[in-house]
């Protein structure tokens, strides 16, 4: 392990009605734990749902689960080295329960999640809206190529990796008609990723600006005709129902946005049988999807303007101004965990 002198770090703590900047002692990593100096975090829609009361989350807590940063300290068994730029998984898993042993770590029986843990618990420095984060044992950590901007790397930890998991559930996409429902960060990413896999991609999105953004990433306007796969990122019961009824014979409906209780979906089992339909859901993702996310963004860095989807970063001290929907033309608000002077120091 490198020499590690105890010092203070700063984090933005969500209190339920406000955000407080709190100074705290940086933890010393043990075993395979890693301390990362956060360069940049992006604000996921689930955090916006938390601060607006639409989503239940531990409080107080340090929110934020899309981040990129530099390793500054490690335990002796860590898989990464000091100085490497990395991203990390949303889930922290035990690796021992039945689900983990079956390769289904996304639903580990003892899962903990970055940006979703209580500040007054045993892992207080657990979110991305901070100067540093402690990554415990069970976190997947992936190195980031030097050529990849921070604004491109950060969303990979949630939105891009989730898209990789969703497309895996959709199956073979080459020469298939794919309907992507919702043109937020996940939807636009799915459009590009499905296009790269040889699909003819249609976008269903009511907002004209977002629809235009999706079309610039490879989508065509929705023609209302049957599709081989429909992937929903909205969670809207109406949208899910519409996607289901668009499926052609052998079609697959993938649900990725239905993460809160909502109306039930009426399905005729006879139609599922006679038309060979499949309905699949995904929540979280597996380690392979995080690596796939980085590889995909790196391979397409010259084809799609990924960085243009993210705002210029606001300072951590101004985090409250970032916890709101992104401006028109952008899909993620960025928060700087460290200033340029701090990163250079």
From TrEMBL:
Which leading EC class covers this enzyme?
oxidoreductase
> Domain Alcohol dehydrogenase-like N-terminal spans what residues?
32-146
- Please name the SUPFAM superfamilies in this protein's record: GroES-like, NAD(P)-binding Rossmann-fold domains
Domain Glucose dehydrogenase C-terminal, by residue range, is 167-323
Cofactor(s) recorded in Swiss-Prot or TrEMBL: Zn(2+)
Q: Which UniProt keywords apply?
A: Metal-binding, NAD, Oxidoreductase, Zinc
What Gene Ontology terms describe where this protein resides (cellular component)?
A: cytoplasm
A Pfam short name: Glu_dehyd_C
> Which CDD domains does the record match to this protein?
MDR_TM0436_like
- What GO molecular function terms would the record report? alcohol dehydrogenase (NAD+) activity; zinc ion binding
- InterPro entries for the chain: ADH-like_N, ADH_phosphonate_catab-assoc, ADH_Zn_CS, Glu_dehyd_C, GroES-like_sf, NAD(P)-bd_dom_sf
Q: What is its EC number?
A: 1.1.1.1
Q: Which PANTHER family match?
A: ALCOHOL DEHYDROGENASE 1-RELATED (PTHR42940)
The Swiss-Prot or TrEMBL record describes its family as follows: Belongs to the zinc-containing alcohol dehydrogenase family.
Provide the protein name: alcohol dehydrogenase
Chain's gene name: tdh
């Amino acid at each position: 392990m490198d020499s590690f002198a105890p010092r203070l770090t700063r984090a933005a703590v969500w209190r339920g009605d406000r955000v407080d900047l709190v100074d705290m002692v940086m933890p010393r990593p043990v075993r395979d734990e890693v301390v990362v100096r956060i360069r940049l975090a992006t604000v996921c829609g689930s955090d916006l749902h938390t601060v607006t009361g639409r989503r239940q989350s531990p409080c107080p807590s340090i929110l934020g689960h899309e981040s990129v940063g530099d390793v500054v300290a490690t335990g002796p068994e860590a898989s990464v080295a000091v100085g490497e730029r990395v991203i990390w998984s949303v889930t922290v898993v035990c690796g021992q329960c039945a689900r983990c042993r079956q390769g289904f770590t996304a639903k580990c029986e003892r899962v903990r999640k970055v940006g979703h843990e209580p500040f007054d618990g045993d892992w207080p420095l657990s979110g991305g809206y901070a100067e540093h984060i402690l990554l415990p044992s069970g976190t997947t950590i992936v190195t980031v190529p030097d050529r990849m901007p921070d604004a491109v790397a950060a969303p990979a930890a949630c939105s891009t990796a989730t898209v990789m998991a969703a497309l895996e559930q959709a199956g073979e996409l080459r020469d298939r008609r794919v309907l992507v429902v919702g043109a937020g960060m996940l939807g636009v990413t799915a459009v590009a990723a499905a296009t790269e896999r040889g699909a003819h991609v249609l976008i269903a999105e009511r907002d004209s600006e977002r629809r235009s953004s999706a079309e610039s990433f490879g989508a065509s306007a929705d023609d209302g005709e049957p599709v081989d796969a429909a992937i929903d990122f909205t969670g809207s019961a109406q949208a899910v129902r519409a996607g289901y009824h668009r499926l052609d014979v052998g079609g697959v409906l993938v649900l990725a946005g239905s993460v809160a209780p909502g109306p039930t979906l009426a399905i005729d089992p006879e139609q599922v049988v006679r038309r060979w339909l499949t309905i699949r859901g995904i929540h979280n993702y597996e380690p392979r999807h995080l690596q796939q996310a980085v590889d995909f963004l790196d391979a397409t860095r010259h084809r799609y303007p990924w960085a243009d989807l993210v705002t210029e970063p606001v300072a951590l001290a101004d985090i409250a101004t970032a916890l709101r929907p992104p401006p028109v033309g952008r899909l993620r608000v960025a928060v700087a965990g460290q200033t340029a002077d701090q990163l250079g120091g």
